[in-house]
């Protein structure tokens, strides 16, 4: 499908912002669902997201983790408790302030996160491998545009 002028790929005439927003939302949601299915990780989407955030932040407090995941602290406490019971994370006291609890990935948690990412990347790589050279060029441009859309401005 060739992209026409100003957002008309596959459609007659210009696309309204709300129509494009709806198409993007549905496509991203379906892609995310498919990636979850491909990973078959045995962890919930909220646990997977928390594992990634802990990996990125290093050893966040429960409050920092809740804020980064945009959930209430009691919700994050439950998520962390479940991950801790599964051996994916450990809670540790803060060296500077014993009242503060930090969360870090265990070796098993890191391996789980890497397996999830690897399976998702493999799925996408297979799909990308089916694209023509012009489609791959458009996919690169789309990735850049999606990255731009999620930037906080």
Describe this structure in words.
This protein is mainly alpha-helical and 153 residues long. It has a single domain (17-126), classed as Arc Repressor Mutant, subunit A, CATH 1.10.10.10. The chain contains 6 helices and 2 strands, in the order ααααββαα. It has a two-stranded antiparallel ribbon with strand order 1-2. The longest helix is centred in the first third of the chain and has 23 residues, at 17-39. The radius of gyration is 20 Å and the shape is elongated.
Per-chain topology:
Layout: H1 17-39, H2 45-57, H3 62-69, H4 73-85, E1 89-93, E2 101-105, H5 107-129, H6 133-150
Antiparallel strand pairs: 1-2
Helix pairs in contact: 1-5, 2-5, 3-4
């Amino acid at each position: 499908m060739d992209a026409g002028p100003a957002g008309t790929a596959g459609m007659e005439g210009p696309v309204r912002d709300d129509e494009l927003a709806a198409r993007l939302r549905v496509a991203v949601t379906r892609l995310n669902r498919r990636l979850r299915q491909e990973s078959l990780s045995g962890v919930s989407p909220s646990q997977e997201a928390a594992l990634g955030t802990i990996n990125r932040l290093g050893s966040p407090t429960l409050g920092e983790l809740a804020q980064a995941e945009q959930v209430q602290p009691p919700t994050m406490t439950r998520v962390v408790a479940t991950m801790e019971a599964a051996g994916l994370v450990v809670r540790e006291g803060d060296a500077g302030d014993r009242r503060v609890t930090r969360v870090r990935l265990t070796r098993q948690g890191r391996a789980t996160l890497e397996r999830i990412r690897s399976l998702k990347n493999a799925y996408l790589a297979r799909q990308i491998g089916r694209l023509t050279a012009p489609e791959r060029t458009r996919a690169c441009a789309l990735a850049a545009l999606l990255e731009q859309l999620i930037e906080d401005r």
